[in-house]
Write a structure and sequence with these properties.
- The chain folds into 3 domains: 195 residues, FAD/NAD(P)-binding domain; 96 residues, Alpha-Beta Plaits (2-Layer Sandwich), CATH 3.30.70; 63 residues, no CATH class.
- The chain is 32% helix and 30% strand.
- The chain is built from 12 helices and 17 strands.
- Strands 1, 2, 8, 9, 10, 11 and 17 form a 7-stranded mixed β-sheet that branches. The protein has a 7-stranded mixed β-sheet with strand order 6-5-13-14-15-12-16. A 3-stranded antiparallel β-sheet has the order 3-7-4.
- This is Lycopene cyclase.
- It holds the Pfam family Lycopene_cycl.
- Belongs to the lycopene cyclase family.
- InterPro entries: CrtY, FAD/NAD-bd_sf, Lycopene_cyclase_b/e.
Length: 385
């Protein structure tokens, strides 16, 4: 049947994390709903690894995420020039393959790939190939777009999933190895061991600029592997990206600027952890809110649901954005690692609540207590948003 002859209850533009999780939860909540995902690229879910800490999501969310979890570890490791620490916090990841398989197997969700959208209206889409789609509710999950309502820094990375000639010896993920040369801001290596011989090696930068040099980063990664005695036999997969790190945000202005013809979700709605860039916990929150909505399934009704999430999340994250301003504006780029080195020396429960975006007043006081790892004059200038 031609797309122009189709009518859906809900359509998602962009087949990324937030769209796919929301479509799955919406279908579970409304078994009779007809849902479609339109993706401009060749495949929904792209080429990604989405990680999260155990306490980041609720027990209920762990239950429905379980079929999509590709790997789980019971501990995680951080390495800094002054110390190495193992944290007893579970860590998990979804992959494009595991999420894509769930969506494609779901009844009532139709996937259209290589179908870019030319225009979005509150009750449907116009496709670039001239087709039209009718839908009562339209979600826009096409990824981050800069806005005058926010200032951002950048987290940019290149990851190589490699097969080693011999076991690599990693027992747990290395969330940060900051013993590497500090260049272009805060630089660290991130490691996910997928099997005794397979590991994702990712070089990440907290940088003022968004330029990414994949060839340089790949050379750095290969040098790191060689220094650890790992002989790379095969590069199984490459993954790269540039993520926003929020320095300031006027959520009310952001919402006014977002077109009223669709329900913005995911990075399009600036929903991500301001400091870490992790997007899965907020995507889970979005999916839960959409599924819990019992009113009419319309663009207008769901915009009110997402507006509430955007405003409340922005208010809760004021402290986290202030920390980002201290990191980017008060710390010298080559010394930004000192901020993280100090942070990871704090209590494990505080670290868990920080990643979950739920630091308590006591946590905030503890983070700011003592001599700051940045010049105090510059730190004071970063207080106000």
């Amino acid at each position: 049947m031609p797309v122009s002859d189709m009518n859906f209850d809900a359509v998602f533009v962009g087949g990324g994390l937030a769209s796919c999780l929301s479509a799955l939860r919406l279908r579970a909540a409304r078994p009779d709903a007809r849902i479609a995902i339109f993706e401009a690229g060749p495949a929904i879910c792209g080429n990604h690894t989405w990680s999260f800490h155990g306490p980041d999501v609720s027990a209920e969310a762990h239950g429905w995420l379980a079929p999509m979890v590709a790997h789980r570890w019971e501990r995680q490791h951080v390495i800094f020039p002054r110390y190495s620490r193992m944290l007893e916090t579970p860590y998990m990841c979804l992959t494009s393959e595991t999420l894509r398989a769930q969506v494609r197997a779901a009844e009532g969700i139709e996937v259209f790939e290589s179908r870019p959208v030319a225009a979005i209206a509150a009750e449907g889409l116009t496709l670039e190939d001239g087709g039209s789609v009718a839908a009562a509710c339209v979600f826009d999950g096409r990824g981050f777009a800069p806005s005058p309502a926010s200032e951002i820094g950048f987290q940019k990375f290149l990851g190589l999933e490699v097969e080693c000639a011999a076991p690599h010896g990693l027992e747990a993920p290395v969330i940060m190895d900051a013993t590497v040369p500090q260049r272009d801001g805060y630089c660290f290596i991130y490691l996910l061991p997928f099997s005794p011989t397979r590991v994702l090696i990712e070089e990440t930068y907290y940088s003022d600029g968004h330029d990414l040099s994949p060839q340089v980063l790949e050379e750095n990664i290969r040098g790191y592997a060689a220094a650890r005695g790992w002989q790379i036999e095969t590069v199984v997969r490459r993954e790269q990206g540039v993520l926003p790190i929020a320095l300031t945000l006027d959520a009310e202005a952001l919402w006014r600027d977002l077109p009223g013809t669709a329900v913005p979700i995911g990075l399009r709605a600036h929903l991500f952890h301001p400091v870490t860039g992790y997007s899965l916990p907020t995507a889970v929150d979005t999916a839960g809110r959409i599924a819990a909505h019992t009113g009419p399934l319309t663009t207008g009704a769901l915009r009110a649901v997402l507006q509430a999430q955007v405003i409340s999340t922005a208010g809760r994250n004021v402290f986290l954005r202030m920390l980002n301003r201290m990191l980017f504006r008060a710390a010298e780029p080559e010394k930004r690692y000192l901020v993280l080195q100090r942070f990871y020396g704090l209590r494990e429960g505080l670290i868990e609540r920080f990643y979950a975006g739920r630091p308590t007043l006591a946590d905030k006081a503890r983070i700011l207590a003592g001599k700051p790892p940045v010049p105090i004059g510059k730190a004071m200038g970063c207080i106000r948003e």
